[in-house]
Amino acid sequence: MPISVGILTSGGDCPGLNAAIRAVGKAGLESMDMRLVGFRDGFRGLMQDRTLHLDRERLSNILTLGGTILGTSRDKPHRMPVGNQVLDMTDAMREVYEKHQLECLVCLGGGGTQKNALRLMEAGMNIITLPKTIDNDVALTDVTFGYDTALSIATEAIDRLHSTATSHNRVIVVEIMGHSAGWLALGAGVAGGADAILIPEIPYDIESVAEAIRKRTQHGKHFSIVAVAEGAMSVEESAKLEAAHEAKRKADGKKEKEQARERLTELEALHRGNTLRVTEQLEQLTGMESRLTILGHLQRGGTPSAADRLLATTLGVRCAELIGEKRFGVMVAARNGSTAAVPLEDVAGNRKSVPLDHPWLMTARRLGVCLGD
Ligand code: F6P
Asked: Which residue's CA lies nearest to atom 5 of ligand 1?
């Protein structure tokens, strides 16, 4: 009697998703006659019961494919836009889960997906998650798949920016993704030899970045590469945001809560375009011609690196084993070169930021890289 298992990908796509889907499916077929039902476009496809049967043939030839053959979305089960309304569709999803007589639903996603998956678990579904995202900010896993590929892309971009920055004696600011974590900017910045690296975990003082660039000029270096995480913030911005978060935490009553939310949205909107501001400020403060490069979604596209294929495959195979063992309510994490099944409650709602004593930060400081502080 085959075991039916559902699978979906949710949140921003990343390289390695198809490798993980393939691994869950192939290992499941080998060991327990698994019938794998893919739901399209994340939790929305689950709600609408839009499926893709993942048989042997469909699982073939996808290991090296970027993106996700299932499609993805940022929809949340409990806040789903339906027509003009935003509704809690958790019950509708449980009905689909029951209709397919699923033994388990596997959710591949980042931080937001872990929270949403926990909600489905609390609504009575058997859930296993895998940690994916180029941001590498999922708690309790050493690394997420997607990160290594994005790291290589961002590093190569910095390499390429070096030659043009040198030729023109320019400052080139490069904006690197990562949401509110600095893993990608820090990793690519160190690997690519950036002269300044700004990450959300260390609020920056623009004058100290400008001073570092001026010093380079004094030492005969007439160009600089500044790697800026999209979530990096100045000391002032960071203080304002912290105050807004504090106000939201303390807000009492509907009106106050609404005002606090509006203030946060306003600050987040102001933060968009931050790297353009950094570029203009550096041009003004250093007198050097400055340019901005935003890497954007290039960092998420294309074929996964060997390391990401290996990680996604290892986690996917372990996921199939856990289904066989009926161990649900866990995320399959990467730990010390192996895997660990971590309770979903411990992962959901926690974000992995770059610790201030991380070896990469220490390495950058010892090399004289400006970290903005
Ligand atoms: O979480 C992955 C990520 O690429 C972040 O680095 C970035 O902030 C965000 O997704 C972009 O999201 P979207 O593709 O929805 O614009």
From this structure: 179
> Cβ(176) to ligand 1 under 6 A?
no
For the whole model, what pTM was predicted?
A: 0.96
Distances (CA, A) of 139 to 55, 134, 211: 32, 14, 35
Ligand 1 probe mutation, 177, 199, 228, 271, most atoms within 8 A of CB = 177
**Residue 7 near residue 36, CB atoms below 8 Å:** yes
Which residues does 201 contact at the CB level (< 8 Å), separation at least 6? 181, 182, 353, 354, 356
- Residue 228 confidence (pLDDT): 98
Residues facing residue 229 across a β-bridge: 176
Residue pair 25/17 in contact by the 8 Å Cβ criterion: no
Q: Do residues 25 and 60 touch, judged by C-beta distance below 8 A?
A: no
135 is catalytic: yes
Pick from 3, 86, 103: nearest CA to 47? 86
Read off the tokens for 114.
């872990």
132 lines ligand 1 (CB under 6 A): no
Query: By the 8 A CB rule, do 7 and 37 touch?
Result: yes
Percent of the chain with pLDDT over 90: 90
Determine which one of 135, 137, 195, 308 is catalytic: 135
Structure tokens at 231: 């979530």
Cα separation, 39 vs 72, whole angstroms: 9
**Residue 32 exposed, middle or buried by CB count within 10 Å (0-12, 13-18, 19+):** middle
pLDDT in tens, 119-149: 999 999 999 999 999 999 999 999 999 999 9
Q: What is the pLDDT of residue 265?
A: 85
Per-residue pLDDT reduced to its tens digit, 180-228: 999 999 999 999 999 999 999 999 999 999 999 999 999 999 999 999 9
Structure tokens at 29: 């077929």
Domains in the chain with CATH codes:
4-145+304-347 (3.40.50.450), 150-300 (3.40.50.460)
| pLDDT at res. 262 | 86
* DSSP assignment letter at 329: S
Q: Is the pLDDT of residue 55 over 90?
A: yes
Does 256 score more than 90 pLDDT? no
